[in-house]
């Protein structure tokens, strides 16, 4: 007996929504049956074959099995609550919501109804970070000391409602806890406004995790160099994940003795072998969609980012912004 195909809806056809539309139109076992955007389909992502409506209320008339929410962050709560009220599972782009209270309301709305929901923290599906996490779980670095990330590039003109912390830094705030299996205990941060916009366009974050791991994040929209790098350092060496190229490289601590006095007197680590791993490289957005489709179908092993995990990322991001305003190191409470 042929398994029925899932009917998917999509809210938002902007810079990110068009990519969701592309993936949904090609996803095994899924039909994109309707999309909603009051601004139309500026990128032609629907190919003229999918009905386009103005809002989520009209979209619900098509009775989708689940909906992907890719509208501006400030609309996530309104759209997500409407879907939860209608009993429709939702994959909501990150960040989950514009602030912590809104994120909590979304968590409660989906959890109280027992609905499948997820947050689109796409870096969790990057092949380099997935391989890194597997190797960290296997203890290949030994004790982990530090996570350092750099995420910088030119300003994306598609972003107007949030600053660099909630748009970009939430990637790093989420992936750090995910790859290490530990959550933030506290954060301290500095931000800057250099491009004349109301929101911050540069942030540097110093965090401490529950495990004692130190985290450093450098994020900005001011650099002509586009960079997406995550470095995890431990007692046996370090992993370097480049999520632009999906490459993972291991730099081992050297064990070869040296007779050069100036070097041998140093009591730290030394340079050892360098290995770049050969890993399968599938598009993270496709893998994310497959995981959510599997979750909607009830597969227990579907690896999605839960709304409560998305709430945690929003909470840490808001603590980062408050720390930058107050100049204080702030503790992070439970999600």
From TrEMBL:
GO molecular function, one term: nucleotide binding
Gene3D superfamilies (UniProt xref): Dihydrodipicolinate Reductase, domain 2, NAD(P)-binding Rossmann-like Domain
Residue ranges of every copy of the GFO/IDH/MocA-like oxidoreductase domain listed in the record: 130-239
Gene source species: Actinospica durhamensis
Domain Gfo/Idh/MocA-like oxidoreductase N-terminal: start-end pairs: 7-121
PANTHER family: BILIVERDIN REDUCTASE A
InterPro entries: Gfo/Idh/MocA-like_OxRdtase_N, Gfo/Idh/MocA_Oxidoreductases, GFO_IDH_MocA-like_dom, NAD(P)-bd_dom_sf
Entry protein name: Gfo/Idh/MocA family oxidoreductase
Coiled coil (residue ranges): none
